[in-house]
Specification:
Its EC number is 1.1.1.37. The chain is mainly α. It is 45% helix and 8% strand.
Length: 265
């Protein structure tokens, strides 16, 4: 948690818009990336029922490494938004590769965890009869099981649940991706909701880059976000316990990503 903290209001910066263009294949990757200011990487294979996100490591690590190496070479200044799982390891992979290329800036590499926030907002709203668009639950940590830590004590508007209901709700948020994978029965994982969450995150990044003040999104990042690290604020003893429990898995996933890059030729 020391290395990876969450929550970043973005700073203002005016950037010119570019025309849209299509590219295909690894040979066109350099041209595709040159001049990019924001890169979103949803690439990789999805889970099948019974798999953890970490089970995707062997396949997706190489895919993400190839793409982010190309980003480090061709658009080192871009905001890199990684959706590809396991996010808890693909962010360290990206960070290590940017370091290898001597262009690392922790303020520009983001693990997109917005779907956890969207889910937390939706489930809280359902239980309390609220409009999900007006509920905001910060979710910190990573993007896998127990490393997903919803801070329901910081929800706006303020909500309260008896401990047993709080634990059930927390568990549902943590396992919501797995719920979708099971329901799709081998046909992949969340698609539309992930597209919605990814779009929300990227629109926030663009808003902030275009000068909008006070844009705040939770994300899996190393150290500070772009402008200021909001820290994790005042949390409940239950949330403190969840953070402590998440640390071992989170550290192992981070190390796995870092070791992967060390082992690359
Ligand atoms: C999700 O949370 O839906 C995604 O990370 C996909 C998955 O495998 O759960």
């Amino acid at each position: 948690m020391q290395n990876f903290v969450f929550g970043s209001p973005f700073t203002s910066q005016k950037l010119p818009l570019k025309n849209a263009a299509g590219f295909i294949g690894s040979e066109q990757l350099p041209d595709c990336l040159k001049g990019c200011e924001v890169v979103v990487i949803p690439a990789g294979v999805p889970r099948k029922p019974g798999m953890t996100r970490d089970d995707l490591f062997n396949t997706n690590a190489t895919i993400v490494a190839n793409l982010t190496s190309a980003c480090a070479k061709h658009c080192p200044e871009a905001m890199i938004c990684i959706i590809a799982n396991p996010v808890n390891s693909t962010i360290p992979i990206t960070s290590e590769l940017f370091k290898k290329h001597g262009v690392y800036n922790p303020n520009r590499i983001f693990g997109v965890t917005t779907l956890d926030i969207v889910r937390a907002n939706t489930f809280v709203a359902e239980l309390k009869g609220l409009d999900p668009a007006r509920v905001n639950v910060p979710v910190i940590g990573g993007h896998a099981g127990k490393t997903i830590i919803p801070l329901i004590s910081q929800c706006t508007p303020k909500v309260e649940f008896p401990q047993d209901q709080l634990e059930t709700l927390t568990g549902r948020i943590q396992e919501a991706g797995t719920e979708v994978v099971k329901a799709k029965a081998g046909a992949g994982s969340a698609t539309l909701s992930m597209a919605y969450a990814g779009a929300r995150f990227v629109f926030s990044v663009l808003d902030a880059m275009n000068g909008k003040e006070g844009v705040i999104e939770c994300s899996f990042v190393r150290k500070n976000g772009i402008e200021k690290n909001l820290g994790i604020g005042k949390i409940s003893p239950y949330e403190e316990k969840m953070i402590a429990e998440a640390m071992t898995e989170l550290k192992a996933s981070i190390k796995k990503g870092e070791e992967f890059v060390k082992s690359m030729k």
